Structure formats: C-alpha cells, structure tokens
Amino acid sequence: MDPIIEIKAKEILSANWYKLYKYSFTKQSGSSIQIQHREVYDRGNGAVILLYNTEKKTVVLTRQFRMPTFVNGNPSGMLIEACAGLLDNDHPKEAIMRETEEETGYRLTDVKKVYECYMSPGSVTEILHFFVGAYSDNQKVNDGGGLAEEQEEIEVLEIPFATALKMIETGEIKDGKTIMLLQYLQIHIFKNG
Questions:
Q1: Domain locations in the chain as residue ranges
Q2: To bridge 4 with a disulfide, which of 18, 28, 48, 113 should be the other Cys (CB 3.0-4.6 Å)?
Q3: How many Cβ atoms sit within 10 Å of the Cβ of residue 92?
Q4: Which positions ≥6 away from 125 have C-beta within 8 Å?
Q5: Strands 58-65 and 46-53: what pairing?
Q6: Is 69 exposed, middle or buried (0-12, 13-18, 19+ CB in 10 A)?
C-alpha cells in the first residue's frame, strides 16, 4: 500500500542557480504517521542523447568541466559524457535536437527515445529523457562546443564504440547516463560487435 503524503510547508533555501527547497510533510503508512523534512533540488527536466555511426562503429561524446566532480575528488573536474541539456520548456525531442547541434555541431534529422528515468531521486526532481541518434559526417554543420553565453566550453569527441566501452572499465567514463546509453547501444545497435 502506498503511503499518504501531505505537504505541510515548503521553504526556498536557495534560488541562485536552480531552486533548493525544504519540504516538511506527513507520511502516513497504515496507522503510523511520521513528520519528515527533506531538501529537494529542482533544476527542471532534461534530455540526453548518444550519437552513433554503425558504418564507422563510433559514438560522439563530449568532455567538459563539472564542478561537482572536482569537489568530489576528480582532479581536473573534466567529465566525458553523452550530450545533454535541460528541456527549457521544450518537448524532449526538440530540446535534445537543439542541444545536439549546440554541443556537438551535428544537425540530426531523427532521434529515437529509448526510455526516461530519475537519476538521483533521493534529492533531485529531474526526470531525464534518454535518446539515441544515428549520425553521419555530412550532418556536421558547425564545430559544436556549446554556447558562450552559457559559459560552455565543450570538447567534442568521436570515439570508436569499443574504446568507449573500455573507458567505462578503466574509469575514464564515470557518468551514469553515458554508461546507460553505451550499454543500450551494446544491447540493441552494436550487438554483433
């Protein structure tokens, strides 16, 4: 049986970059009622895509600085990951096609949604929409790299698929969404090597 939740209070703790709230609520399970408090980070929903080329057996990834990884022991703060971004009130498919061109320089004509999931449901509201998209060299319309006004400095990487899988094992790729999409490709697209 699902618990009955009633929000009693919602307080903004920070609204600097996104919003951090403190919720006070009651949780009733059967005859037991508990008062609980949780902090919840609301950054909006997002989308992520892994570009792949079956002829060249390659994928396109990005490399950029991520402050949370730096403060948690990543000496350079640089992270290799699949192209991703917030929806910004767009439909997930529209948002990821926009992000793909901004970050990687590829203008895709079609993408496939494969699933959606919460990446850190204990503290973050974001639901992430996962996509894959086939690319070819003639779809490269600019250098990518992100938007200067968003302080993005993104390096675009075209990597053999087999190498990307090995980078999970070596720890060069530690991003959860990227690992999930590489494994999706391994099961559904590159299943015969």
A1: 4-42, 46-188
A2: 28
A3: 20
A4: 40, 41, 42, 43
A5: antiparallel
A6: middle
d(CA 170, CA 117): 25
Number of H helices, E strands in the chain: 4, 10
pTM: 0.93
**Residue in 38, 74, 28, 47 with CA at minimum distance from that of residue 172:** 74
Of 135, 48, 147, residue with least CA distance to 96: 48
pLDDT in tens, 33-60: 999 999 999 999 999 999 999 999 999 9
Beta carbons within 10 angstroms of residue 137's beta carbon: 10
3-state SS class at 71? helix
DSSP-derived secondary structure for 22-61 = EEEEEEEETTEEEEEEEEEEE---EEEEEEEETTTTEEEE
Binned at pLDDT 50, 70 and 90, residue 17 comes out as confident
For residues 67 and 74, what is the distance between their CA atoms, to the nearest angstrom? 9
